[in-house]
Amino acid sequence: MPGLGGRDLAGALAGGGSRDDLPVRLSNRTYAGTRNVAVRELGFDQPLLWVVVALLAWGLVMVYSASIALPDNPRFANYAHTHFVLRHGVSMLIGVVCAMVAFQFPMRSWEKMAPWLFAAALVLLALVLLPFVGKGVNGARRWISLGIMNFQPSELAKLAVLLYAANYMVRKMEVKQRFFQAVAPMAVAVGVVGMLLLAEPDMGAFMVIVVIAMGILFLGGVNARMFFLIALVVVGAFALMVMMSDWRRERIFAYLDPWSVEHALGKGYQLSHSLIAFGRGEIFGVGLGGSVEKLHWLPEAHTDFLLAVIGEEFGLVGVLLLIGLFLWLTRRIMHIGRQAIALDQVFAGLVAQGVGLWMGFQAFINIGVNLGALPTKGLTLPLMSYGGSAILLNLVAIAIVLRVDYENRQMMKGGRP
Description:
α2 packs antiparallel against α3 (about 85-105). Residues about 1-40 have low confidence and may be disordered. The chain has 14 helices and five strands. It is globular and about 60 Å long. The protein is mainly α. About 65% of the residues lie in helices and about 5% in strands. The chain has helices spanning about 5-15, 45-65, 85-105, 105-125, 155-170, 180, 185-200, 205-220, 225-245, 245-255, 270-280, 305-340, 345-370, 390-410, and strands spanning about 20-25, 30-35, 135, 140-145, 150.
């Protein structure tokens, strides 16, 4: 690892003399009295941190660009042009502070807290459904107002289910090949979360949680045949939910033909204007701030459809760069998880890989929706879209991954996590 080689060499040279006065031979010259300088060691994965910082900074700029014209709309007439970017910046600062606190907890503490966090998430998911607690927007009741930001319990549920699933697999290692003993209790837990989320409704968050839970079960060693049976049941359940819901069916039909007379000004409106934005961007984009679609044509341009504004202003080059950053981020997080499992830190490894699945799958869904490759679904772009609780929990999850990497490095140096 970087920084360790110099330290080991210094220790070897110090075997025959003073640690502060080392004779060192370089080429054919001898330098006596060379001071033993301490080598600075990096405690965690700095490239991962810098990619996250880059995504956060890019997201902050794009939220400002996408929301600067919103006060011209009578709905937001009382807001300043900097209203959304300032709130987004405050959310980022709160997220950074919470991430720094989360990094201080060792993974064994997160393992102990996992069931309690899961219980807290269930309570909050139930509370948000109460009319005098939950805040409704566009027919959905998903937020709890905290004054400086609106907290979305479904974001906490993603992290809570992730930690609980990893903790569950560690406890069930001996029976992981037995379907009912290994899978059924976890399926019940995810089912309860799903019922609460669908009552909001928030099918997008439920999809992410199901993928996280299934991914951790698979990575934890659940029999492949059982995994594919679960996947088949889940796909069937989602298909049934779409078939039984008129407005979900309309979204599917609008996705298949957003340009039709029936859908262009209805369920297909967002998608059609998102595609227009990408078309205007062409290869290199129209330039930062030059988007036309964000001028009250494309709804939710600063949240779910932020990528469309990026595509219009930065073109194909910007979109490919963004996809590349998320691919690298996901791969790096998964590598940290595999490394932890190789060091026999199964819980930490499954948590890190769960975060990788979370970031990668949610980014995949958001990018697919914006490009018209997937049906419209209310999922934000991780680390970039406007949203207080989403940014906060994203940063806490990344901090936990950095903690896993920190403990990996400690163990490889012979220490304890």
